[in-house]
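User: Reviewer 2 asked us to show a designed sequence for the structure in our supplementary figure. I'm pasting the structure tokens here. Could you produce the per-position amino acids so we can include them in the response letter?
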């Protein structure tokens, strides 16, 4: 199990002066997106307190793996901002250079149970990475405006 509590990869925070960064490694593109999604969720609230009561389908398109990752995380942020939906974990069914689909599992924010951590404003388009190395391991990086 990764440091962030995800099931299939590892995710950690990156130092940055004005933003917060996440980096992750995983054995597949799907696992990498799940791991980054879990890391992102862990910035908003303590995921251990979030129950997987609801499923929100997510389907995004983009021009390459990086764009698809950024749009997936944009959708996760949109659900937090508009529905107060906190993610416990993501189940990504498929990732290609042009699209991703899956579900976010979690529940609506309850002040009595969920401690809000960081106020994330946006997924930046700076220095993002989502790629496979020669050994078949997938690496990702994203910075978030806080």
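Assistant: Here is a per-position design you can include in the supplement:
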């Amino acid at each position: 199990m990764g440091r962030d509590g995800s099931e299939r990869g590892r995710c950690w925070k990156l130092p940055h002066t004005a933003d917060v960064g996440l980096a992750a490694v995983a054995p597949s593109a799907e696992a990498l997106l799940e791991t980054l999604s879990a890391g992102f969720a862990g910035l908003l609230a303590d995921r251990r307190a979030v129950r997987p009561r609801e499923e929100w389908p997510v389907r995004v398109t983009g021009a390459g793996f990086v764009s698809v990752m950024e749009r997936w995380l944009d959708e996760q942020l949109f659900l937090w901002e508009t529905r107060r939906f906190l993610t416990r974990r993501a189940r990504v069914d498929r990732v290609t250079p042009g699209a991703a689909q899956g579900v976010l599992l979690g529940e609506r924010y309850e002040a009595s149970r969920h401690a809000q951590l960081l106020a994330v404003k946006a997924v930046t388009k700076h220095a993002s990475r989502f790629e496979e190395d020669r050994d078949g391991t997938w690496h990702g990086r994203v910075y978030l405006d806080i």
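For the response letter, you might also mention the following. Helices lie at 29-44, 65-83. The first helix runs from residue 29 to 44.
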